[in-house]
Amino acid sequence: GPLDAPGQFPVEVLRELARRIQGTLVMCVDDLHNVPVGHPLHGALVAFAECLRETPLRLLVCSRCEPPRPWARLRGRGALEVVDEQALAFTVKEIGDLCECHGLPRPGRADRERLHGLTGGWAAGLMLLLEQWRRTGRLDPDESPGSSLVDWFLNEVFLPLPEEDRELLCLCALPSRVPRNLVAEASGCADAVARLERLREDHAFVQLDEATGHYRLHDLFRGFLRERARVLWTTAAYGGHAGRWARLLWAQGEWSAAAALQVETGDGEGLAEGLRQAAPALLQTGRGENLYHWLSAIPEQARRADAELTLWEGLCLILHDTRRARALLGEAWEALARRRALV
User: Fold this and answer.
1) Are residues 56 and 105 both part of a single domain?
2) pTM here?
3) Among 13, 65, 93, 155, who pairs with 33 as Cys (CB 3.0-4.6 Å)?
4) Within this chain, do residues 68 and 104 fall inside the same structural domain, yes or no?
5) Residue 32's domain spans which residues?
6) 303 found inside a domain
7) What is the DSSP annotation of 28-44?
């Protein structure tokens, strides 16, 4: 067909369009990410774009992926401008302007900041939340099956991916941040980092903090993936995956992320084991409130049956409830003395 000779077909189309059209015309090619990298359509579009300088035509290409190799020569000459999602993101002020343009009341500063925090200014996410606001009066993301937000993520991002990538994303949605050095072990996928890098390059809502070495999913996408994981996995499987992440995170000193997973899944035993390792450092670094909060998530009967947990709880309370702290410390000391443990 005509794409077998990509250098000829777009020129003929261009000449015909230039003869027929007065004024400036923008031609939009959408969803180019669905075209395989080696497909001749890329060469055809590049050849087409190269002929546009002397015409009233402009080419707008929309894709979630970086421009493939055939587009490199246009970028090198400055003939191709790449506008990414950060440049297109709405600011807090612009969110108010967007609402007014769509006939919605201008939200107050707090609501605009909340919308910006939820979406990061992402245009499609904003529009879906504003549509929900118009219908229901609610700004909280609706993550129930059938909601517009869930349907968008499901059909536009999740289902088109290979099954292995869908599983990896669900696993990476469990912790709030994903350490790059742990993702292969936590997921059981030897090429997990390579897969995440490809998804990041394809703008699949995966970001990387180069300074800390952590991947982070867009908050709305992470919420979708966590709900999806609960649909796809049994409760035991969800807890097992969360527990494996937590053990690795405790060992690496990422205590908040580890504890959050175990509090969520009700893994009191795993949480107790992690706190036994981290409690001294938590107290020494002034994080006694965190320690007390996590200890409180373990059933009281289990805490009282464990002398070390009782000891740490007493130390947390020593400045806030002296009487209770003394009772707990005395109880812990007696238990430890009975088993001749060293404190």
Assistant:
1) no
2) 0.73
3) 65
4) no
5) 2-82
6) yes
7) EE--GGGS-TT-HHHHH
Q: pLDDT category, 3, cuts 50, 70, 90? A: very low
Using H for helix, E for strand and C for coil, what is the string for 250-264? HHCCCHHHHHHHHHH
Report CA 170 to chain centroid distance, whole Å.
Answer: 10
Are residues 262 and 271 in contact, defined by beta-carbon separation less than 8 angstroms?
A: yes
Closest by Cα among 121, 118, 229 to 173? 229
Do 61 and 109 fall within a single domain? Answer: no
Q: Are residues 336 and 278 in the same domain?
A: yes
Task: For residue 211, give both structure tokens.
Answer: 């300074």
Instruction: Indicate left, alpha or beta for 146 from its phi (over 0: left) and psi (-120 to 50: alpha).
Output: left
**109 and 67, same structural domain?**
no
Say if strands 25-29 and 206-209 run parallel, antiparallel, or are unpaired.
unpaired
- Using CA atoms, how far apart are residues 9 and 28, in angstroms rounded to an integer? 18
pLDDT tens digits, 263-298: 999 999 999 999 999 999 999 999 999 999 999 999
Most confident listed range (2-11, 53-62, 254-263): 254-263
DSSP 165: H
106 is a domain residue: yes
Instruction: Give the pLDDT confidence of 152-211 residue by residue, as tens digits.
Output: 888 888 999 999 999 999 999 999 999 999 999 999 999 999 999 999 988 888 999 999
Domain count, the chain: 3
